Amino acid sequence: MADDKTMIHLSLDDVRDLAYRVLRRHGLGEAHVPLVAETIVAGERDGCAAHGVYRLTNCIRTLETGKVNPHAVPRIVPAAGAVVRVDADGGFAQAAFDQGLPLLVEKAQAHGIAILAINHCVHFAALWPEIEAVTAHGLVALACTPSHAWVAPAGGTAPLFGTNPIAFGWPRPDRDPYVFDFATSAVARGEIELHRRAGKPIPEGWTIDAQGNPTTDPEAGLAGALLTFGGHKGSALSTMVELLAGPLIGDMTSAESLAHDDGALASPYGGEIVIAIDPAGILGEAAAAHIARAEALFEGITGQGARLPSERRFAARRRTPAEGVTIARELYEELTRTA
Amino acid sequence: MADDKTMIHLSLDDVRDLAYRVLRRHGLGEAHVPLVAETIVAGERDGCAAHGVYRLTNCIRTLETGKVNPHAVPRIVPAAGAVVRVDADGGFAQAAFDQGLPLLVEKAQAHGIAILAINHCVHFAALWPEIEAVTAHGLVALACTPSHAWVAPAGGTAPLFGTNPIAFGWPRPDRDPYVFDFATSAVARGEIELHRRAGKPIPEGWTIDAQGNPTTDPEAGLAGALLTFGGHKGSALSTMVELLAGPLIGDMTSAESLAHDDGALASPYGGEIVIAIDPAGILGEAAAAHIARAEALFEGITGQGARLPSERRFAARRRTPAEGVTIARELYEELTRTA
């Protein structure tokens, strides 16, 4: 791979350096820089452009608008025995998760199941980094977080829910874990933005206009609301995310997060939950045999030509450390100008 | 409401009597009869015909084919501190849930979160009865169970997953709880059967034929596989259900349940999980205020004309104790002939 007029080639170390420089230049505290930077590197490493270097632009905007505490000091808050509660102190979620993870693992192993509740955090990344950090300990993981209110409930006419991702992970012995991580909206908001820029209509089922009517006009859709995936079922799941990572842990809903944003266009602010389950806490010594038995299910999927959700991501992960990645030259120059 | 040629009017007490008689007549043990009967009554009471008296036909077939232990004695199996494991002894799930529930509530209140794993049970009902039994204690609930392998993974060609319902409940002070309970398949298998009998085509997106191609022919769809709702996202959720209520708790996948059935057409056999979370275990004394704050989310849904998932069910529940219910005369006569 070589540079050309529109794309530039970077090694993962180059990506890391770039992320460090950009984050420091915009005032992020030294305790946070490596953690946030590694999230950016992980996005590029796994071939997820939307969660790679591109996300630095969100970080910059969030830092510049004062919507994240760059020097946040997360702290563990007292809670029940199988609960880990971390107050992120208004900082990016990574440091709070980093602090809570060892205790989440310890409590899941002690009790069989445990829940990590992160409060007052800014969440701009995918959930799979958290999921994989938990499955790496041989635990099953389930995570979700609200975002900003851009999505209408099924049968409704106005934005109320966030894109509200749900992510799940299952440890596979000597294999990449089984991991999914998806928005409960029909698509990412960025997809509609891309259609708008390209002057292309969007498929029906993605958005409604400001009057609540279905629309294929991206402009009208952005002024209206996204729809959830899967009709009323996706809408119910999105409601669940609002509740679990909102009021259940004493934090904001997506509507409250958007009100808090107050037009800054910063990353969402609020809560996140991660549930961890230890198979050994349920099955004791038989756990390993049953975890191995789950492989038949994965073979049943791939054996009929269907994909496992994170296959492409894991394939990229094996390729990019040697091959590096390419990013848009315009994005690179925008970031390096300011860095 | 009066009887006519096709329908017959019953009070809920009539439904209860009918269920008791049918279940006893087919050899179900006295410890199970009231529990299974109340599930049937709850279905009729809530206006869910598919989970009411009609389900007795499944119970009969399952009893007659010897695929359920009519005299099962569920027992608590040792597990970690926040885990309740109940071996249903091959019986209907109700007795195992009934035995595990008090301990699930106790453990959720002690640790903040707890998980109930029911093994070796026959599950023929909806999940909302379990969900509502948990929310009645002021706890948040999440439940799932595999079924028989009738559903293909997204991108696949052959049945692998069950209809794999996911259900969730949130306690609302002085109100019916927020509850959803849906199959991760695009539709219930029974819907396709109804189209077949009526000689009507089915909508695209419901099924594929035995060669894995989309079909609107109900006959071809029944010979092939159902699809999941919401494409690859629904497929991922269905996989999660297989894992959580299968290998994680040492129990069968939907493919294993169908193999175990061996053509008997009995109800699915295997595991079920229920996760319970105590808001007070996370928030302490602040829990009540945040639970109350969630009402704004529900108002945000209903205020724009959208429905809450179980609204119609709760409305029926207020109506049927006085008004009674109507069931198909043919079904009633089939059941009373044998009872």
UniProtKB/TrEMBL annotation, chains A, B:
The keyword Oxidoreductase appears for this protein: yes
Alphabetical UniProt keywords: Oxidoreductase
Domain of life assignment: Bacteria
Pfam entry (one): Ldh_2
Xref: InterPro entries: Mal/L-sulf/L-lact_DH-like_ah (IPR043144), Mal/L-sulf/L-lact_DH-like_NADP (IPR043143), Mal/L-sulfo/L-lacto_DH-like_sf (IPR036111), Malate/L-lactate_DH-like (IPR003767)
Family according to the record: Belongs to the LDH2/MDH2 oxidoreductase family.
Record protein name field: LDH2 family malate/lactate/ureidoglycolate dehydrogenase
Annotated source species: Sphingobium lignivorans
Lineage: Bacteria, Pseudomonadati, Pseudomonadota, Alphaproteobacteria, Sphingomonadales
